[in-house]
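Figure 3 (text version): structure tokens given as input.
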């Protein structure tokens, strides 16, 4: 199967929900939609132009986490395909909740979307959330990479500069997918968001002023922590190059 859209869902425990939603709205420059759901547990981050690709959900307990929504024409057929690739069916409630072999939840939904948002323009340069990274324990890495290539309908590509990274390019979708092998041998697969920024160091300073913390610095990216304690990265890529509109690959290949 090949999804026609990809959405990242931030699942936030109740004590962190309001502050963290406001933080990500300020980071992206997006508006927060009216809440929806039986208990007002869902909302979207709405770009000034284009269709949403970031949503939030208030959860009762547990750690903050991210799950993906894969937008497909036929969730039932896509669920069978995902099961053949190794997924587990978790629940059905108008959409299908699945779990990858490594333990990352994702949903198969039909919500229409097709218009990619543009990067937000700040005085120091443009930035946007344009990538989700799957953090995969070493023992599960090869199998999980093959699984996501199957359900996303595109092969993974090795990074020419970082042996711990592989990329799945889905031209025209709002989010690229980076597959990262982490040092831990075992444990569940998790996900984090990546921003691309024209001026990474200025973008880091902007996030610090909004309430983030710096966890680590690398040559091409900064690891940050949001108000809920979740990690995310600010990279030195040109915004929008994680998932180009054609199959040509990122403008500056090798950068995460």
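Below: residues designed for each position.
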């Amino acid at each position: 199967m090949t999804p026609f859209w990809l959405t990242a869902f931030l699942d936030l425990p109740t004590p962190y929900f309001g502050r963290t939603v406001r933080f990500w709205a300020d980071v992206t420059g997006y508006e927060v939609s009216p809440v929806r759901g039986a208990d007002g547990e869902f909302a979207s981050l709405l770009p000034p132009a284009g269709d949403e690709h970031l949503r939030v959900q208030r959860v009762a307990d547990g750690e903050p986490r991210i799950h993906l929504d894969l937008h497909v024409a036929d969730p039932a057929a896509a669920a069978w395909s995902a099961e053949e690739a190794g997924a587990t069916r978790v629940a059905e409630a108008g959409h299908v909740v699945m779990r990858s072999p490594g333990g990352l939840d994702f949903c198969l939904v039909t919500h229409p979307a097709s218009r990619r948002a543009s990067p937000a323009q700040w005085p120091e340069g443009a930035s946007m959330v344009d990538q989700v990274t799957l953090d995969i324990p070493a023992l599960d890495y090869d199998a999980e990479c093959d699984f996501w290539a199957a359900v996303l309908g595109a092969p993974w590509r090795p990074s020419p500069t970082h042996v711990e990274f592989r990329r799945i390019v889905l031209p025209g979708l709002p989010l690229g997918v980076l597959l990262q092998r982490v040092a831990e041998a075992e444990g569940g697969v998790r996900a984090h968001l990546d921003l691309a920024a024209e001026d990474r160091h200025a973008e880091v300073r902007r996030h610090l002023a909004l309430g983030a913390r710096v966890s680590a610095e690398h040559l091409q990216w900064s690891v940050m922590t949001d108000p809920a304690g979740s990690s995310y990265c600010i990279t030195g890529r040109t915004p929008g190059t994680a998932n180009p509109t054609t199959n040509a690959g990122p403008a500056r290949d090798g950068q995460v």
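Residues 120-235 form a domain with the 2,3-Dihydroxybiphenyl 1,2-Dioxygenase; domain 1 fold (CATH 3.10.180.10).
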